[in-house]
Amino acid sequence: MTIVVTAKEDYDQLGVWRHVSAAAGQRYPTFEELVVVRAQFFPGPEQVVHVIPSEIKNSHPLANCLHLWQRQDAPSLPGELMN
């Protein structure tokens, strides 16, 4: 498994986010593998979201890469979607 961690990034009006990319060689990471990555890089009860970018915007150098994001300055999702 290849993991790339991006330091906190400030997206102005979109907030401050932490980003982790996970790739598993010739295949996409499994859900179970993403759960382990989440526990290692986003400890705690805060919400973490999995984003599947469009093919047009997915210019990541890792093949078969999935992305986890966590907002650092506010909840990642609106309150009604948090549960």
* Topology pattern, helix = H, strand = E: EEHEE
Helix content: 10-25%
Strand order of the largest sheet: 1-2-4-3
Q: Characterize the main sheet.
A: 4 strands, antiparallel
Radius of gyration of CA atoms, rounded to a whole number: 13 Å
Low-confidence stretches: none
Gap between N and C termini: 29 Å
Shape: globular
Mean pLDDT across all residues, rounded?
A: 82
Number of helices: 1
How does this structure look, described?
The protein has one helix at residues 31-41; strands at 2-10, 16-23, 49-51, 65-71. With 83 residues, it is an alpha+beta fold. The protein starts with a strand and ends in a 12-residue tail after the last strand. The mean pLDDT is 82.
Give the helix/strand layout:
Blueprint: E1 2-10, E2 16-23, H1 31-41, E3 49-51, E4 65-71
Antiparallel strand pairs: 1-2, 2-4, 3-4
Structure at a glance:
Helices cover 13% and strands 33% of the residues. The chain has 83 residues and is of the alpha+beta class.
